[in-house]
Amino acid sequence: MHGPAQAAWLLVALCAATGAYCLLRMRSRIEEQRRTAGGEALMGFGMAAMAVPAAVVAPPRWAWLVYAAVFGGAALQTVWAARANRHHLHHLVGASAMVYMSVAMATAPGAHAGHGGTGVPLLTGALLLYFAGYVLWSGARLAPRAVSSVAGGPPVLGWADRSEVALACRLSMGIGMVAMLLTL
Questions:
Q1: Which of 22, 76, 117, 119 could be disulfide-bonded to 41 (CB atoms 3.0-4.6 Å)?
Q2: What is the pLDDT of residues 75-112, one digit of tens each?
């Protein structure tokens, strides 16, 4: 991805930390949490790898094609999972965006891929709008709410089962996706 080196390293750190936490979430007692955490870990680590500044490591063209193949496979698996849970549609958009960015970087690694010299390509703009909306929606869902304390309430969940932390991870990956799309 293109952009300032400091911002790229911050994006690498954010995505790698998110991917690491998602790996830890795979130890959850809740099966659905474990399944989604694996896909989110793949996204986090993939985004971290793609965000490494080109001045440090300039991946060869074939590496971008490997990224496209990996995330294409993840997208196909997500299509299957989306039949049971609508949340997987977001994962499908994310994996597809990673395929799009990988192919764009493979076709024009030294230039702004997909740009005809004027403005933002339509697909990049649509993905930017989607992920910006997702970031705003996720952030609003993290806003504190009034909690009613009822005796005999729900059992205390383990740290891997905390929905607000999982949502914060998804929010950070959404922010990372916006940053990566802006630099494409």
A1: 22
A2: 998 888 778 777 678 888 999 999 999 998 888 755 44
Distance CA 10, CA 18 (A): 12
Say if residues 53 and 9 touch (Cβ distance below 8 Å).
yes
- Gap between the Cα atoms of 166 and 36, Å rounded: 10
Structure tokens, 182:
């802006």
Q: Residues 21-42, buried b or exposed e (16+ Cβ, 10 A)?
A: bbbebeebeeeebebbbbbbbb
Residue spans per domain, the chain: 5-142+158-183
CA distances, 133 to each of 7, 125, 126, 171 (Å)? 22, 12, 11, 11
Q: Using CA of residue 33, residue 39, residue 45, residue 51, what is the dihedral sign? A: negative
Q: Distances in Å between the alpha carbon of 175 and those of 15, 17, 118, 166, 169?
A: 10, 14, 25, 14, 10
Angle between helices 88-107 and 61-82 (to 10 degrees): 160
pLDDT value at position 120? 66
Find the helix packing angle between 88-107 and 31-51, rounded to 10°.
20
**What average pLDDT does the segment 22-29 reach?**
86
